[in-house]
Amino acid sequence: MEYIILDLEWDSAYSVKYKRFINQILQIGAVKLDETFAAVGEFKTLIRPQFYPHMNGAVVRLTKIRPQELESAPLFPQAFQTFIDWCGDDCALCSWGPDDIPVLLD
């Protein structure tokens, strides 16, 4: 079995339509570890925003992701499928931080 350590970068904004804050994943990063916890691979992809095109300035400063970099990035469904394919069949998904999994589920 391999271990996938996941790290997401995201932006959020209030949606009038849904009457709540919507999280929008901008980047998926991950490291794959083998059963001895040795690094055996890395994954990184940007994701083109769908819900709102303008990034929060604080998110830009924190992540160093520029909005121009996202213009040609894949949409979330394609990026996530590529990530799932990279993970493989026999892995445990682990989160770098406590917020990544809830954001992914959202």
Q: If you had to describe this structure to a student in words, what would you say it looks like?
A:
This protein is of the alpha+beta class and about 110 residues long. It contains four helices and four strands. Strand 1 (about 1-15) and strand 2 form a beta hairpin. The protein starts with a strand and ends with a helix.
List the SSEs and their pairings.
Layout: E1 2-15, E2 20-33, E3 39-46, H1 57-63, H2 67-70, H3 76-87, E4 91-95, H4 100-105
Parallel strand pairs: 1-4
Antiparallel strand pairs: 1-2, 2-3
Overall 3D geometry? elongated
- Assess the beta-strand content as a share of residues: 35-45%
SSE sequence, one letter per element: EEEHHHEH
Helix content range: 25-40%
Instruction: Give the low-pLDDT segments.
Output: none
Distance between the termini: 27 Å
Roughly how many Å is the radius of gyration? 15 Å
Strand element count: 4
User: What is the arithmetic mean of pLDDT?
Assistant: 90
Structural class: alpha+beta
Q: Characterize the main sheet.
A: 4 strands, mixed
Number of helices: 4
Strand order of the largest sheet: 3-2-1-4
